[in-house]
Amino acid sequence: MKNILFCFIVMLMAFGCAKKDVPKYTISRVVKSDTATLLTVNISSRLTESQLLSIAGKIKSDSSKLSNLQLCYLLNGHKDRNTSDNNFYAIAKYPNANKVVMQDTLKDTEGNFVRLKISGISAQVAKHLLELNPKEITGKNIVGRFVDDNNHTLIVPFYEPNDPKKELYVMELDTAGKVVSATVPMIVTKDGMERYVVSHRGDYITIKDSVLTQYSVDDAGLPYNSIKAGL
Predict the structure, then answer these.
(1) How far apart are CA 106 and CA 145, in angstroms?
(2) What Å distances lie between residue 53 and 20, 58, 87, 96, CA to CA?
(3) What is the rounded distance in angstroms from the CA atom of residue 53 to the CA atom of residue 106?
(4) What does the pLDDT look like over 203-222, one tens digit per residue?
(5) Fewer CB within 10 Å, N side or C side of the chain?
(6) DSSP letters spanning 155-169
(7) Which H/E stretch holds residue 173?
């Protein structure tokens, strides 16, 4: 059984597939339990419903023997090990044939019933967020612009050009350009990494290699959301 699963993982690690209408993807993680098989599907850009379904159809056809298949789509830069579903751009679940209900009307490109939930925002909305430049951040030394697909907001860390303290500011904007949160985090260095504490509870963020990662003080250092700048 282990050899079969290993061969299956190797097969899925290949980029894309032969069909031209299926976007390129990779499988970075396979978690199999008695009730489901969860696959982390890495995608390099924000995809439409039809594109996500085409990937799902391809993977399903290659893994027809796996029951209760669940595909977790992950955007580039996000970490596939976290404590919640907040990291995933979308999740596709295949119900067993005997559990299909009237509400199940969506099918993948191979004709299989699938339940698809897209939590992330579209490429058009992301482009709009990344182009926001309200007066609150105009003229600032911006560290990066991070689209938070979970909250549908833009997170902008920046420095004031003439601030002698050189404090980092973190501002969050909605799609209308309205400020929904603004923080001057306390900096704590641990294991050589700067942590920016953004709440009274001790929740913090880190910024490294153009990736902003969010942590909850309750989750023992495990990330619950990672966001690549500019994506």
Answers:
(1) 34
(2) 14, 9, 19, 17
(3) 9
(4) 999 999 999 999 998 887 88
(5) N
(6) EEEEE-TT-TT--EE
(7) strand 168-173
Q: Please enumerate in sequence order all residues whose Cβ is within 8 A of that of 102, keeping only pairs 6 or more positions apart, or say none.
A: none
Phi, psi (rounded to 5 degrees) for 228: -85, 135
Cβ partners under 8 Å of residue 30, min gap 6:
5, 8, 9, 12, 37, 38, 39, 40
pLDDT at 20: 56
3-state secondary structure of 132: coil
Neighbours of 212 (CB within 10 A): 23
C-beta separation of 157 from 174 below 8 A: no
Give the model confidence (pLDDT) of 8-38 as tens digits: 554 444 444 445 589 999 998 898 887 789 9
Q: How far is CA 230 from the centre of its chain?
A: 13
- pTM for the predicted model, two decimal places: 0.84
Identify the structural domains of the chain with CATH numbers, from first to last: 20-93 (no CATH), 123-227 (2.40.128)
Which alpha helices (DSSP H) does the chain contain, by range? 2-12, 49-62, 123-130
Nearest to 54 by CA among 113, 109, 115, 111: 109
